[in-house]
Every structure is written in structure tokens, then in C-alpha cells.
Design brief:
With 369 residues, this protein is of the alpha/beta class. The chain has helices spanning 10-26, 38-42, 59-64, 66-83, 94-106, 126-133, 142-149, 161-168, 175-178, 196-206, 246-252, 262-269, 282-291, 299-304, 319-331, 333-350, 355-368, and strands at residues 2-7, 31-36, 46-50, 87-91, 111-114, 136-139, 156-157, 187-191, 217-222, 239-243, 253-259, 274-278, 310-313.
Length: 369
């Protein structure tokens, strides 16, 4: 069968690539055409556009990129009709993907959604559009099933692929030697995000707090979809940049500073005490604050249902607060123990389901039926 996949960011590329791998095991004839990234291409996907070309963050940023957005949407629609897949598989990235879903539905193309858009966080009325446009929804957060049930929409909870990936990640005893890191200084992992726009907003502040933590080494998780030279001006004494090794970094970290997103969940699943950070443009933040319907921004707190990790958002994300909170997750044993107890709750709620395999099996069954 022919599969057309769309992922608009790095985490989507990661999860979609695992799904493609699993689909090939279920369907030996599988062919893939996709909008995504290097990992999807490595799984045999014929790449139409890389997600880097489409990366837009925030309400204001989206508004100023509307012509670019429309151009890509028209191109995607033409390509979808030319390829005529057995199914369109959408991965998060709601603003673009729901428009593609509408077009596909109008032209008789079956639509599956792998990793629900976060409509439970804001604009919950979109659930009616999802029900009308998406033939099967595959969700990865436990509370999403209950959310959709409130609207009479049956979805498939297939477990969490991030939990699977963390559990399966092998130990790397050569991590320090390979990256020429000091073995006598504990690591503070710095995860500033994967898009240039968010890195610019986060990393300068994250690295402004070095003096009180001279007994630690700060290791920044760089992403290899950006030019390594971009990170060069962040490197200094006690700060190292490494690429493509986020899971290895978290395996060896004492604590972490993490930009809100999937990385907060990854950090928790590795059991690393963390401070969650987030900042965007003033206009985007004001609009977001008015429409967001959930009490937290980190997946850890949302899944557990209470504050497990501290969130420093917008104005609260400053050097003074960052120093105070980082001291807690590196030196306050009682605080660390409480956070790790929350991590245990998190793992219990997520469970282990081999999400990509389960989703692929269900998808092929639905298509053949």
C-alpha cells in the first residue's frame, strides 16, 4: 500500500520514522512519500520537503508567514492528488495538517492521525472538525482518550512512543571519552529546543547562570538539522555543545534545563531532575494565555495532573529564578526525591505498549478491512 505522511517538526520526524519502520513489518509492499525530515528519509520515505523549511512558531510568527504557508499547502494538495495514497497519515502539526485533512477528505483519501494535535490545550471546539475529517485517531497521552470520549469520538490509545524509545535506548559507557568531557564534574544538560527561533529565545538565558555552578559542566544538546557553526558562539569555558546525542546526554546528566516540549517528557523518563523553561514573543504569549485551557505547559505535569516539575514561563524565565530552581534540582535532596516520585507516577500512567508497532498493526488492519 501507499502511505503519505506529514510531520512538521523534529519530534514528528522521529516518531513518524519509527511508525514507517513498523508499517513495513506489517505491510511488505509499503511505499512512503512524506513531508518530514532526515529520519523519515532514512526509513525509505521519498521526501517532498524537509520540516526545516516549514518551521513556524507562535501566533504572530504564523501570521507573518501566511503566504509561505499557503504556498506549501497548495503544493501539498497537488502532490497528494498526484500520488493518490491508500492513506494520509498526519503527525501532530495541527495548523497545516488539519487543512490537508480537509482536502484529502474532499477527494476521497482516507485520513489517519498519529499523535493527536493538542486541541485539548486550546480551541477545544476543533474536536468537531477532527471528528469530521479524521477516519482514525491514534493518541499517545492517557488523558487524550478521555478528552475525545467527552465528544463521542472513539480513538485508539497506543501507548507513548517516547516512553518506548527511552526504555529501549542502550547504555553508552564511552559518552564522556567520546565527547571529551570532564569525568570529575557532574553534567547539567541544557535542552534549548530544536528550532532556531526557540533556541535564540532560550539558550542565552540558560547559559547566563554559570558562576554559581562552576563545579558542574553544562552540556548543550545541539540538533544536527542546524548548522554546527550556529552554536559556536554559545560555547565557552564550562559549556560544551554535542550533537545528535540527547538520550546519551540525559543518561549521564545530574540535572537539566529543558525548553517545554517533548524533551520534558524524555528528561523525566530518564529520571533526571529538571527545570522547564519557556519564552516566546509578547504577542504570541498574550494570545496563548487567553486561549490555552490547561493549567500546565509541560507534558510531565499534564500527564500526572499536578506540578511535578517547576515551569518558568515568559517573565518568570530569568537568571535569578533559574539559579534558584537549578539549585533545588541539584542540591535539595528532599526536592529531588519528590520530583522523582512524580516521575514514577508518570511512568505508571504511560505504561509500555510498543506504540509504533501497535499503531502500525491497527492501521494496516483498518485499511485492509
Amino acid at each position: 500500500m501507499k502511505y503519505y505522511l506529514i510531520a512538521g517538526e523534529r519530534s514528528g520526524d522521529f516518531h513518524a520514522s519509527h511508525l514507517m519502520h513498523a508499517l513495513r513489518h506489517q505491510d511488505a509492499t509499503a511505499e512512503f512519500r512524506c513531508w518530514g525530515g532526515d529520519m523519515m528519509a532514512a526509513e525509505g520515505g521519498e521526501l517532498v520537503h524537509h520540516y526545516q523549511e516549514m518551521a513556524i512558531m507562535g501566533f504572530l510568527e504564523a501570521a507573518t508567514s501566511i503566504l509561505k504557508f499557503r504556498r506549501y499547502l497548495r503544493e501539498c494538495q497537488r502532490d497528494l492528488l498526484a500520488y493518490r495514497p491508500d492513506v494520509l497519515i498526519l503527525v501532530d502539526y495541527a495548523g497545516f495538517n488539519l487543512r490537508v485533512a480537509k482536502f484529502a477528505k474532499q477527494h476521497g483519501i482516507k485520513v489517519f492521525y498519529y499523535i493527536s494535535p493538542k486541541i485539548w490545550a486550546w480551541n477545544q471546539g476543533r474536536v468537531h472538525k477532527v471528528k469530521a475529517l479524521v477516519d482514525r485517531m491514534f493518541v499517545i497521552l492517557p488523558f487524550e482518550s478521555e478528552f475525545y470520549q467527552r465528544f463521542g469520538y472513539e480513538v485508539d490509545y497506543i501507548g507513548n512512543p517516547t516512553a518506548d524509545a527511552v526504555a529501549e535506548h542502550p547504555a553508552n559507557p564511552d559518552f564522556y571519552a567520546h565527547n571529551k568531557l570532564a569525568t570529575d564534574k557532574p553534567i547539567i544538560a541544557v535542552l534549548p529546543g530544536s528550532r532556531k527561533q526557540e533556541i535564540e529565545a532560550m539558550l542565552y538565558v540558560m547559559l547566563s547562570i554559570l558562576p554559581p555552578f562552576l563545579n558542574y559542566q553544562f552540556v548543550v544538546a545541539g540538533v544536527d538539522n542546524l548548522d554546527p557553526n550556529y552554536y559556536a558562539h554559545f560555547e565557552r569555558n564550562n559549556v560544551r555543545i554535542i550533537f545528535g546525542q540527547t538520550f546519551d546526554l540525559l543518561q549521564h546528566a545530574k540535572a537539566a534545563l529543558v525548553t517545554s516540549g517533548t524533551a520534558t517528557l524524555e528528561t523525566a523518563l530518564f529520571g533526571v531532575p529538571q527545570v522547564v523553561c519557556y519564552r516566546t514573543s509578547g504577542i504570541t504569549y498574550a494570545i496563548g494565555k487567553a486561549v490555552i485551557k490547561v493549567p500546565y505547559i509541560s507534558l510531565v505535569n499534564l500527564i500526572v495532573g499536578r506540578e511535578v516539575v517547576k515551569e518558568l514561563i515568559q517573565g518568570e524565565f530569568n537568571s535569578r529564578n533559574l539559579v534558584m530552581e537549578l539549585k533545588k534540582v541539584t542540591a535539595d535532596e528532599e526536592f529531588i526525591a519528590q520530583q522523582k516520585a512524580g516521575y514514577v507516577e508518570l511512568q505508571e500512567k504511560l505504561g509500555r505498549h510498543n506504540a509504533a508497532d501497535k499503531a502500525a498493526k491497527l492501521m494496516v488492519e483498518y485499511l485492509r478491512a
